[in-house]
Amino acid sequence: MMRTGRIRVVRHLGWVAAFLFLPAVLFAGPYEEAGIENTDPGIIAWASGHTNLIRGPMNIANPGLGNVTFGTPGNAVGAPECNHLDVVSLGDGGEITMTFNPPITNGPGADFAVYENGFPSGGLLYAELAFVDVSTDGQTFVPFPSVSLTPDPVVGDNILDPTDVHNLAGKHPGGNLYPCQGTPFDLSDLAGDPLVTGGQVDLDRIRYVRVVDVIGNGSTFDDDNPPHPVYDPYPTEWPQGGFDLQAIGVIHQLEAQECFIATAAFGSPFATKIDLLRSFRDAYLMKTSVGRKAVEFYYRNAKPWAAWIAKHEPLRAVTRILLAPVIGLIWLLLGMP
Fold first, then answer.
1. Three-class SS of residue 265?
2. Alpha-carbon Rg for the chain in angstroms
3. CA-to-CA distance for 213 and 198, rounded, in angstroms?
4. Nearest to 91 by CA among 238, 197, 219, 232
């Protein structure tokens, strides 16, 4: 579903050579954060899966052209090839949600980076932009507070100053460049959001990152106060239109210590049965004050119990037997296939 109040549009191909010969320009905007190269040793993982791809039209003002069709969601799983063909195109206002197992966690500085195939021109960029939201359970999402200071429409294949843009994916070059650069996102920017302070979204356990194409004709707005219209190249009437997602790299990842007792019983901290228990925790327990207190009590006290269980195979077997009916009930409750 496209977000209310945010709509979007985009694309590129043959202008790369021409852009590379344009003169360098001075950056004018305040947002000069560096991109994160795909070869950066700080990247420890990549998106492990995807869900909820919604293709947008090639031109939202001319729906008769149809939706974009280029690429598949699998192109955005794993590391990027830094090639403009290794993407999934979203179209105007389209979106995709990438999944992470283990989840992303909130650490110092940037926690993940989003890679798009933008093309550089001196200090400017042919940049197709996207809003970015995160979620623990795949249902409740928190948007990164975006800012766009681009003053005028970016017509057709024109370029923009990426330092006018903040917390919008796609502001760093990634098209046919190796190494390519991703736009960094810091989960700490969301710490004051009511959905975070209320416990619906846990910044230490982000399993879903949603990328939503910006319709660059000014019909979508940033999150500043007062809001600004967001501009990027428009119109771009191609099957490879809109934001072109290459990959999402993980910088801070939750360590394997979530379900201590179940991990001791089943072995791998990311086994299917343990994922089911986590899903129950996120979908039910974390949404009530009593459930959150129970989870907090568990994390304060379960680790020594789990260590004791892990050292004794008979106890591991008994624990698996005791957990079996619980897991079965959760499986039915969640309606798992």
1. helix
2. 22
3. 28
4. 238
Alpha carbons 160 and 237: distance in angstroms, whole number: 19
Helix, strand and coil in the chain, % to nearest 5: 25, 25, 50
Q: Extract the tokens encoding 18.
A: 């021409």
The C-alpha atoms of residue 32 and residue 182 are separated, in whole angstroms, by 13
Q: What is the pLDDT of residue 258?
A: 55
First to last CA, the chain: 23
In degrees and rounded to multiples of 5, residue 232 shows phi and psi of -145, 180
Of 9 and 284, the structure prediction assigns the larger pLDDT to 284
List beta partners, residue 248: 114
- Angle 85-230-219 from CA coordinates, rounded to 5°: 100
Burial 315-327 (b: 16+ CB within 10 A, else e): ebeebbeebeeeb
pLDDT tens track for 275-292: 777 778 767 776 677 876
List pLDDT tens digits, range 31-77. 999 999 999 999 999 999 999 999 999 999 999 999 999 999 999 99
In sequence order, the 6+-apart residues with CB closer than 8 A to the CB of 303 are: 257, 260
Which residues, 6 or more positions from 256, have their beta carbon under 8 angstroms from its beta carbon?
102, 263, 269, 270
CA distance 33 to 171: 10
What's the rounded Cα separation, in Å, for the pair 208 and 56?
A: 20
Distance CA 68, CA 88 (A): 10
Q: How far apart are CA 32 and CA 27, in angstroms?
A: 8
Please name the residue that has the structure tokens 């207190």.
Answer: 293
Q: CA 206, CA 74: separation in Å to the nearest integer?
A: 20
pLDDT tens column, 143-187? 999 999 999 999 877 899 999 999 999 999 998 899 999 999 999
Name every residue whose Cβ is closer than 8 Å to that of residue 95 and which is 6 or more positions away in sequence. Answer: 2, 52, 53, 54, 56, 210, 211, 212, 213
How far is it, in rounded angstroms, from Cα 84 to Cα 90? 14
